[in-house]
Amino acid sequence: MQLVYLRSTERDFAWLRVYYTRIFPEGDKRAREQLRAIMRLVCDNPMIGRPSLAPDVRGLVIPGTPFSLIYRVRNDRIEVLRIWDNRADRADLGDNF
Question: How much is the pTM?
Fold first, then answer.
């Protein structure tokens, strides 16, 4: 399946870069490897993530990081909605997740 990043992930990727370049640079390489591995896993097994309250939305913790991949499965693609910092207030995700 094709993996597509929605516009809603732009700030998340910006925060991810800041976090791993300024706050925790020693974790940068491993975090990138884990993120790539999770994305491959989701492409191979789209329903692997835990269902959320919203229809078709799933979440999967990225091992070794404080982040989760929030996504939904469509007919021919997987849409990445957020790369969520699990330490943030879940209310900031809104009602859709």
Answer: 0.87
Tally: H helices and E strands in the chain: 2, 5
Task: Output the six-digit token pair for 85.
Answer: 């910092």
Class of domain 2-87: alpha beta
CB-CB contact of 68 with 41 (8 Å) = no
For 81-97, the pLDDT digits (tens) are: 999 999 988 777 765 55
Q: Hey, what are 78's tokens?
A: 């997987």
> Which residue from 40, 20, 54 is spatially nearest to 70, judged by alpha carbons?
54
Query: Cα 50 to the chain's mean position, in Å?
Result: 12
Give dist(CA 40, CA 26) in Å, integer.
23
Q: What span, in angstroms and rounded, lies between the C-alpha atoms of 23 and 7?
A: 25
Domain layout of the chain by residue ranges: 2-87
Decide if 80 contacts 5 (C-beta within 8 A).
yes
